[in-house]
Design goal:
Elements (H helix, E strand, L loop, with lengths): L1 H24 L1 E6 L2 E6 L11 H20 L14 E5 L6 H9 L3 E8 L2 H13 L6 E5 L2 H6 L7 E6 L6 H10 E11 L2 H4 L5 H8 L9 H18 L3 E11 L2 E10 L1 H4 L6 E7 L5 E5 L2 E4 L6 E4 L17 E8 L6 H13 L8 H13 L9 H8 L6 H10 L4 E2 L9 E2 L3 H14 L13 H6 L13 H4 L4 H11 L22
Parallel strand pairs: 3-4, 3-6, 4-5, 6-7
Antiparallel strand pairs: 1-2, 7-9, 8-9, 10-11, 10-14, 12-13, 15-16
Helix pairs in contact: 2-11, 6-9, 11-12, 14-18
The protein binds S-adenosylmethionine and zinc ion.
The site of zinc ion has 9 residues, from loops.
Length: 511
């Protein structure tokens, strides 16, 4: 009897087994991190291998956030034990690879919802949940991400919401800030850098991000600031504020890690952490104009929020007399949280390099991001020297001069060989003029009288108040010189490791 039963069971299972076997032929196996994905050979579901860095980094970022969340006293019971509690939403999941990696690789994860509106993508997610034996943790959901996230407006469900769209994340932000819990983490990718960081579509950039990009060297930092400002404005409507934990410009996209908090008091800072920017069309000098002021009352210690004062500059540039252009509004606050970066760096160092192929790059990028000054923007020494027509000073020498005048300087992760400083442009142009005059034979002879460089060279007001006039004194090597020099010689993997031919943003699937 039992024998017959087993035989009939075998007969039933046989066609199912062969069906699965045939189906498997239609898939490639892809291993990334601790997940293995069966990926259709036919171009039906989106997968971009080059985004492993984004996924590796996101795993470290979510882990760092969860450690900070727990050490802030949340989710610890009386015995100090922590049960799995983290709910993650990957709202635009495609193959499900990222969600599955979260399921495997985030300690204390309770639930990951992998959502996509493409039936082929959801089929792939379901297959791969089985394949990775993550049925208890990862759930597939077929639906429009905006509608799905909007359900949680009254009761935010997710500690972590990850948005990794094609192009801009803007349409998803409103519902995403509603779906994320208080003190939760929002992860945002935008790949539309042509709009966000380019100068060709200011009207589109304004429509999507509520601001325009600043021309010149710092377009990638201003891209980050535009995305942050759009998210901060959206969050403010729901009495929520944002705290950028890490804001990176990477290859062809930006990736942001943002803590979202419900705090009507903090929302009051929204105007004073938003700015517009004036940018000189001739020499590239920039000025920031905050859109509000936060002042502390000396007697009571309380803060008052008032209208901003301005403008910080006239219609024409103080240095070269060319017209000033306007950019923004954009985020004026810090781009990173150093404690968060330290945690990510620590975690990244502890990972198995065989499993996580991009840890060197994480270390390189975050080391640079960590030392960045909080002040907006950067420039390449070469951009300034091309205005006054002289060879560019080496970056560490320029940093030294800024330091000797009492200012700070740092590098930036967003552009190689660019410098950030809290010095006013008066000091920057003074240093450049001193540098130029020291090279007498090159002293801007070929400049036309109407050029910005000519005006700067003949503007005797520049540096009038600065006491340190001698070249030798001004450019004397100091700590900053050595700091910047060693940071530059430290082997930083800023760019993609092992890129394939034609790597970059991938197009949508064709089927
Ligand atoms: C760039 S892919 C996501 C890649 C994935 N996060 C990864 O790491 O491999 C974008 C996905 O978003 C989905 N999508 C686009 N708009 C959507 C919407 N409104 N609702 C749900 N899914 C959407 C697409 O079907 C596509 O699979
Ligand atoms: Zn100018």
């Amino acid at each position: 009897m039992l024998k017959r039963l087993l035989q009939s069971l075998k007969n039933i299972l046989k066609p199912i087994k062969s069906q699965v076997m045939t189906d498997l032929d239609a898939y490639n196996k892809i291993k990334e991190g601790k997940a293995e994905i069966l990926f259709p050979k036919e171009d039906k579901v989106f997968y971009n291998p080059i985004q492993q860095f984004n996924r590796d980094l996101s795993i470290c970022g979510i882990r760092a956030w969860s450690e900070l969340y727990q050490s802030a006293g949340k989710k610890r019971n009386n015995e100090g034990e922590v049960k799995p509690f983290i709910n993650i939403l990957e709202a635009l999941s495609a193959s499900g690879l990222r969600a599955l990696r979260y399921g495997h690789e985030i300690p204390l994860v309770k639930k990951v919802v992998a959502n996509d509106f493409s039936p082929a993508a959801v089929e792939s997610i379901k297959l791969n949940i089985e394949h990775n034996q993550l049925n208890g943790t990862v759930k597939a959901n077929e639906g429009d991400a905006i509608l799905f996230m909007s359900q949680f407006r009254d009761k935010p469900e997710f500690h972590v919401v990850d948005l990794d769209p094609y192009g801009t994340a803007t349409p998803f932000i409103d519902s995403a800030v509603q779906a994320v819990k208080n003190d939760g983490l929002l992860l945002v990718t935008c790949t539309d850098l042509g709009v966000l960081a380019g100068s060709a579509y200011p009207e589109k950039c304004f429509a999507l991000y509520g601001g325009t990009n600043i021309p010149g060297d710092a377009t990638h930092e201003s891209a980050l600031r535009l995305v942050l400002s759009m998210i901060a404005s959206t969050a403010a409507k729901y009495k929520k504020t944002i705290e950028p934990m890490l804001s990176l410009s990477i290859d062809f996209y930006v990736r942001l890690f943002i803590r979202v908090k419900t705090s009507p008091i903090k929302v009051k800072e929204h105007a004073s952490t938003t700015m517009i920017n004036y940018h000189c069309s001739g020499c590239g000098t920039t000025y920031d104009q905050p859109l509000g002021r936060k002042i502390q009352d000396e007697k009571t210690g309380r803060y008052k929020f008032t209208m901003a004062r301005g403008p910080p500059v006239g219609e024409k540039c103080t240095f070269c007399h060319k017209a000033m252009h306007l950019a923004g509004p954009m985020w004026a606050g810090p781009l990173h949280n150093k404690t968060f970066i330290d945690r990510v760096l620590q975690l990244s160092k502890s990972l198995d390099k065989e499993v996580y192929g991009t840890t060197d790059r994480i270390e390189g990028m975050l080391t640079l991001a960590r030392q960045e000054l909080d002040t907006p923007f950067y420039f390449k020494p070469g951009s300034l020297s091309s205005v006054i027509k002289c060879p560019a000073p080496p970056i560490n020498e320029l940093a030294s001069a800024l330091g000797n005048l009492g200012y700070k300087a740092s590098l930036t992760h967003a552009m190689p060989s660019a410098i950030k400083t809290n010095a006013p442009w008066e000091a920057i142009w003074f240093i450049m003029k001193t540098w130029l005059h020291h090279r007498k034979e090159e002293s801007g002879k070929n400049l036309s009288e109407t050029s910005p460089g000519y005006s700067i060279i003949h503007n005797d007001q520049i540096g009038k108040e600065i006491e340190l006039k001698e070249y030798e004194e001004l450019f004397k090597k100091n700590d900053l010189y050595h700091e910047i020099k060693s940071l530059r010689s430290f082997k930083i993997v800023r760019f993609q490791q092992n890129p394939t031919k034609f790597w970059g943003p991938k197009a949508k699937p064709t089927n």
